[in-house]
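Help! Submission page says 'invalid entity' but I think these are all valid:
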Amino acid sequence: MKQFELLPHTADIRLKVYGRDLKELFINAVKALAFLLKEEVDQKKTRAAQQTVSATSNDIPNLLVDFLSEILTRSEIHNIVYPEVEDMSIQPLRTTHSAEAILIGYPVEKFDRDVKAVTYHEVDIERNDEGMLETLLVFDI
Amino acid sequence: MERGSFKKVNDYAWEIPETFRSDMLVPVRFFASEDMLDDIMRDESLYQAVNVATLPGVQKYALVMPDMHEGYGFPIGGVAAMDAKNGVISPGGIGFDINCGVRLLASAVTFQEIQKRVPELATQLFQDIPSGVGRRGPIRLSTKELDGILTRGVGRLVESGHAAADDLTYCEASGCLTGTDPAMVSKHAKGRGRDQLGTMGAGNHFVEIQRIDTIFDESVAKTLGLFKEQICILIHCGSRGLGHQVATDYIKIMLGAMAKYKIEIPDRQLACAPFQSPEGQSYWKAMQAAANFAWANRQMITWETRLAWDKIFGKGEGEKLKLVYDVCHNIAKVEEYGTGAKDANAKMKVMVHRKGATRAFPPHHPETPERYKEIGQPVIIPGSMGTASYVLVGTAGSMTESFGSSCHGAGRMMSRTAAKKKIRGADLKQELEARGISVRSGSMSGLAEEAPFAYKDVEKVVDVVHNTGIAKRVARLRPVGVIKG
């Protein structure tokens, strides 16, 4: 099953991310971000680090961007990429929505790309004709 | 966008009327020559400008420069002036890389005098200026030291010996915006920026060794200290992770606050708040702090450049690299412009958002350094790594036509993926080296993404701003050394 794919953008990076449900969509988006930061991580050679990451927002599309932004910030401060997700939970509440996950990360010497930020531009979670959830994500490079 | 959606204003200006979409408050005006239109219509730039024209308080027209390309929220090359009293401030109109900008250093030597040592100089600069993603800078700042930079910008580096007094004089805003409050900059932002001062980053950021190949205006060039065949250094970078995080933090805050102010926008990335609101003022203070960090960052790279120059040409030689000017192209400023009312002296304060656009103030503007009073503010336009860059000066036309703004570069027209499909980084390096350009890069893939053919023709872009009368050509530079992350 396709997790994400790169689409054309003149200067930045536009991705389409897929998932059977919201949880899987969020997990695939985390994997996509890790891929943009470092395409290949030698997981055998590097000791894994574990981090709990959470975010809250006023709607689900914003929550996805805010959750990814939190991961990007931690990646940059600690020089770690987080390609694995454990215990992903999303709580849609009445006015505030929250996401929390345990991420498994790997320290890297440097990243492949300078991902400056995750943008809210074009983010819109919808179910496609195949019954999958999908959204566009634009990353500032 | 279809050709029929906009009308010709003159040979270099076009307008999308405010009737194009019901939520537009003003028209969109963009600068381009007729032969650039097909490329411009290929991406989302003009639709993004239409979205900008809906923002509360926007004045006269939403503008787009000829180097435009699609961004997120604002198009790159976008300029919008909002009523400073009743309008909004939008972090998306400044961009994540707050005060991304360029500075030009002029040497006292000609290309012919140092030609044989250019490859050696390129290697030294690559070694001494931290570049690439994740590379740390030469110092790790304590919170107190970082707050000093956020409050005083380049001024703090004059005290620490990393800058000369002239380095202050020839920066836009003297390298320091004074309305900052470091407490408005989050812990996350400080964490990202703490060890990034003096680092270039990656992507389209660079340090280049340039040779002046053409002087268009001898008198103005002389005032700027520029002459034919002179070697110059061009530096392009911004506020690094600190600025990126400030934008991230405040876009989220504004998204949460818009309902309170009954603001509706066509794109979440245009999140905004009234400039005078608590959210608007907090962002304004944080943005200025991030801008100061960016100026300090370019100053530290200047310091590293001077040390590298010393190593190649002898102790004390680096000091001879003089700052011509440092100008930002991602920033918001409060400025005054004519209202177009019958009273020619009537002016109003506006919050000018420049996202991928350079300030271009004319002669005698109070914010232009004393030495440049008669010629106007320098406008520095980098091209791609294989093509020309330009020095221009602002003209009176910028004040009536473009809220004191001009273009900021050549402008991308091809995606990074498409560029990489077209050429391998190693082949591009070989091609540029064969043309006499020494290339030093930490990433061959990153180099391919920045291939010259991925950019518009900088000559056409500069022709448009020159012929529109918003800036005037002074000198053209050609790269002889390229240092990239």
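Support: the input was valid. A stray whitespace character was the problem, and the output above is from the cleaned input. The mean pLDDT of chain A is 93.
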